[in-house]
Structures are given as C-alpha cells and as structure tokens.
Description:
By secondary structure, the protein is mainly alpha-helical. It has one helix spanning 2-100; strands at residues 102-105, 111-114.
Amino acid sequence: MNELEEQKQREKAEAEERRRNWAAEKERKAQEALKKREERRKARAEKLQRKEREKEERLVRPQVNKQIRQEKQLQKDQQKKEKKPQKRRREDSTTETSKRHKSVVGRNGRQITLPLRFRD
Length: 120
C-alpha cells in the first residue's frame, strides 16, 4: 500500500508540475503578446508623428521660401539704394575731371585728351 500511495503522490506532484509549467508558459506567451502589441502601438504612434511633422514641413516650406525670397529682394533693393549715391558721385567726379583734361591733336591727326599734368 505504501508504494501505491507513493506512486499517487508522485503522479500528483508531476500533475502539479505540469500545471505550473503550463501556467508559466501561458503567462510568458501573454507577456510576449503584450510586449508585441505595445511595440506595434509605439511604431504606429511614431509613424503618425513623423507623417504629421512631414505634413507640417510641407505646409511651412512655401512660406519659408517666400520669406527667403523677400529677404533676398530686400537685400537687392538695399544694394541698389547704396549703389545709386555712388553713381552720382562718379558722375560728379567725371564732370570735374573732364574740365581738367585738355583736348589736343595727336601726330596721326586724331584728337586726344591729355590729363592736367600734360597741360602747357
């Protein structure tokens, strides 16, 4: 009888071990499934954020380009304004220097202008 009881005890222990292993395996699979779902959720969220960022960049890009063009145009306008006074000064200086030059007929018969230092 003692052997029978021991055998029953062993069978009970083995059955209990199988139940524990089965429960542990089920828990492990549940954890893996949960982890996989969480990773997919994170991937979806990141993809959505990336798409929103790209959409925002596409919407903002024309405005930025327009602003850059306007800034370049302003710089060109400022450069033109800065150049205009210089042109006036050059015109003034050329009129003054032309008064100082002297027209003379050269050896070959052509008229040439001489600077002030060659004046008689």
